[in-house]
Amino acid sequence: MMNPHTRLSSRAMAFVLAGGRGSRLKELTDNRAKPAVYFGGKTRIIDFALSNALNSGIRRMCVATQYKAHSLIRHCQRGWNFFRAERNEFLDILPASQRIDDYWYRGTADAVSQNIDIIDSYDVDYILVLAGDHIYKMDYEMMLQQHVDSGADVTVGCLTVPREEASAFGVMAVDATSRITDFLEKPADPPGTPDDPNVTLASMGIYVFSWKFLREILQKDHDDPNSSHDFGHDIIPDLVKNGKAVAHRFTDSCVKDTPEAPAYWRDVGTVDAFWKANIDLTDFTPELNLWDHNWPIWTYSESVPPAKFIHDEEDRRGMAISSMISGGCIISGTEVRNSLMFTMVKTNSYAVLDHAVILPYVVVNRYARLKNCVIDRGVVIPEKLVVGEDPEEDAKWFRVSDKGITLITQNMLDRREAALK
């Protein structure tokens, strides 16, 4: 019998679903899965779900991978290798490997089903199923506690969103006890909540089950030829109809600095959303606090020297205003404003960067002017390239989003150079 004073997180494991491509990020996910995309200067998107689990007291984790997983696996091996098996803690990578029958992961539920024997070996009472591709800070212990107290078959993490914006989500209708009475996928007329008709509860893709219960459900789902083997499409709607599904509000467990601070959660699944969430970090007081020592975001930290700023002449001054500059960067005679630069970026004289998100190991050559853009890892920006001032010209060579953000990869620049020869 479990000690009543033991935190539930110590008897739980986190199963992180990290196999998705994230095609709306366009070329940013050509060579990496969405959870492996860089975010915030030095982290990757998956670090947020993993850090939430670690900070919540969960020491047993699995990451299920599928699409172009090499950089994600390498990141987890390098940045999350501090667990000690002799203390009954670990992070395991579970690539799709046709472990059952002759197919890869067919859906989110199937990703768990194909690893039932592995999860059994971990001897856990609860399983927390997480999406590995969102930016937020959350104490999962509070969600686990609600799950046990309510006697739910499944507890679903939910965002509170304005009704007029809820049509883009899978949403929950709930009663006064937070029991889910209906699950609707992107409805035209989303339901309000009992306490506020102007807001709707939208699924975060976070679920808590007892492992014994989920194990039985997954085995039935595995044998159902009519199932798509997905939590959101099959498992959750069935439990809403035939079991007890309860909503957990993100506002009840969101980790924030002050009670009046907003509950920060972002899906950075489009180029526009990715750019904005990164640029927002350069605000005077950003809504997402990456400086919080009480709830750190763990990651792989390369051993690099501090950032360096060179030259102090008119039009050739190494400077950064309202920006985040990561370790190893050299700002050589470049004006940087409202921008975020990842590790080991090198900029050269007379260049100007304005509202630019620059991923690691980029080189910006002389006289380049980059505005409202995202530059992929390892790109070499040629001399005198101007981006963000003429949308029609940018669109000839690069990816320009609906809101005017320009995405640049090395392949795009190579095609441009070949065409201009």
From TrEMBL:
Its EC number is 2.7.7.27. One of its GO terms (molecular function) is ATP binding. CDD domains: ADP_Glucose_PP (cd02508), LbH_G1P_AT_C (cd04651). One of its GO terms (biological process) is glycogen biosynthetic process. Alpha-D-glucose 1-phosphate binds at residues 105, 170, 185-186, 203. This is Glucose-1-phosphate adenylyltransferase. Keywords: ATP-binding, Carbohydrate metabolism, Glycogen biosynthesis, Glycogen metabolism, Nucleotide-binding, Nucleotidyltransferase, Transferase. SUPFAM superfamilies: Nucleotide-diphospho-sugar transferases (SSF53448), Trimeric LpxA-like enzymes (SSF51161). The record marks 66, 104 as: Could play a key role in the communication between the regulatory and the substrate sites. Homotetramer. Residues 305-408 form the Glucose-1-phosphate adenylyltransferase/Bifunctional protein GlmU-like C-terminal hexapeptide domain. PANTHER family: GLUCOSE-1-PHOSPHATE ADENYLYLTRANSFERASE, GLUCOSE-1-PHOSPHATE ADENYLYLTRANSFERASE-RELATED. It comes from Tropicimonas isoalkanivorans. Residues 14-282 form the Nucleotidyl transferase domain. Pathway: Glycan biosynthesis; glycogen biosynthesis. Involved in the biosynthesis of ADP-glucose, a building block required for the elongation reactions to produce glycogen. Catalyzes the reaction between ATP and alpha-D-glucose 1-phosphate (G1P) to produce pyrophosphate and ADP-Glc. It holds the Pfam family NTP_transferase. Belongs to the bacterial/plant glucose-1-phosphate adenylyltransferase family. It is an enzyme of class 2 (transferase).
